[in-house]
Amino acid sequence: MSPAQFVKESSVPGEFTRQGNRFTGRIARDSTAGPGEGPDDQDRWPVEPGRYRLVVSLACPWAHRSVIVRRLLGLEDAISLAIVDPIRDERGWRFTLDPDGRDPVLGIEFLADAYRRTDPTYEGRVTVPTIIDTVTGLVVTNDYPQITLDLSTEWTDHQREGAPELIPADRAEMDELIEDIYRDVNNGVYRCGFATTQEAYEAAYDALFARLDVLEQRLADRPYLLGDTLREVDIRLFTTLVRFDAVYHGHFKANRNKLTEFANLWVYARRLYQLPAFGDTVDFDQIKRHYYLTHDNINPTGIVPKGPDPRVWTT
């Protein structure tokens, strides 16, 4: 058995099991905390424009979701954005893209500094996206599935006029799709790439492409996953698809097909890429450098592929 990239997230059969989210506070309209306070006794922080800082990596698909939703909803002035270096070392995500290697608002060099300030006993992996309270410097949440949902539902008073409704009134169908796509596609590519046994890898590989085949057929007669309207689930699928050929196909051995070889998924992915907030938030250089330079056990040479040509996305 080869060594696991993340030892604490590798199970005995060689399967990658993603760690849970340590900080699950929410910024909520019904928080009973007053301005500058928080959280209340239900771990709900007050909605306050200008108070919170969203920390992301442009390389990370989980963080990319929040970047897209923030932009689509027009929340750039309400929630500030911090971008970490795509190269994560043993100390975690670094603010080396900023002058003097410190986030200019939070004053910290590593995202881990905020984690330790909030929970000095925390020993898990430091993840993005993370929302930090600039008043106290404490982590509010790193619960990436909930972050984007709350941007849609809890920040409505601060969204731009004409902002899209990313969450339908009846969420049942979307929530089921989100779960299937998370299990088999969003997390499925990682279960391929971080597997340490042939059996675990092949099980993840089979589930991944079985789900992509289902999605390929679903998109045969509709522009978006739920019909004619862009929804949250489309954003969640897009951030995996846009990384597929550049990273997951080769680096994670998800190589039955390239995205460009799926007729409907490729048309769908390009349609999204060419929308505002999608393609203009994609940074293929940071994406490739992150994956190929931080997963030493998978790519020990540290060579970053030159291709594929990103111009295919604008055809």
TrEMBL record:
In chain numbering, the residues marked as site (Lowers pKa of active site Cys) are Y248, Y291
Keyword Mitochondrion present in the record's keywords: the answer is: no
Q: List the residue ranges of the region (Disordered).
A: 1-46
Q: Which annotated residues bind glutathione?
A: W93, R125, V126, T127, V128
| Ranges for domain GST C-terminal | 167-291
A single GO cellular-component term from the record reads:
cytoplasm
Q: Does the keyword Calcium apply?
A: no
For molecular function, the Gene Ontology terms on record are: glutathione transferase activity
Q: Where is the active site?
A: C60 (nucleophile), Y190 (proton donor/acceptor)
- Would you say which domain of life the source belongs to? Bacteria
Q: Name one Pfam family in it.
A: GST_C_2
Keywords for this protein:
Transferase
State the name under which the record lists this protein: Glutathione S-transferase family protein
Question: What organism is listed for this UniProt entry?
Answer: Kribbella capetownensis
Question: Which lineage ranks, top first, belong to the organism behind this chain?
Answer: Bacteria, Bacillati, Actinomycetota, Actinomycetes, Propionibacteriales
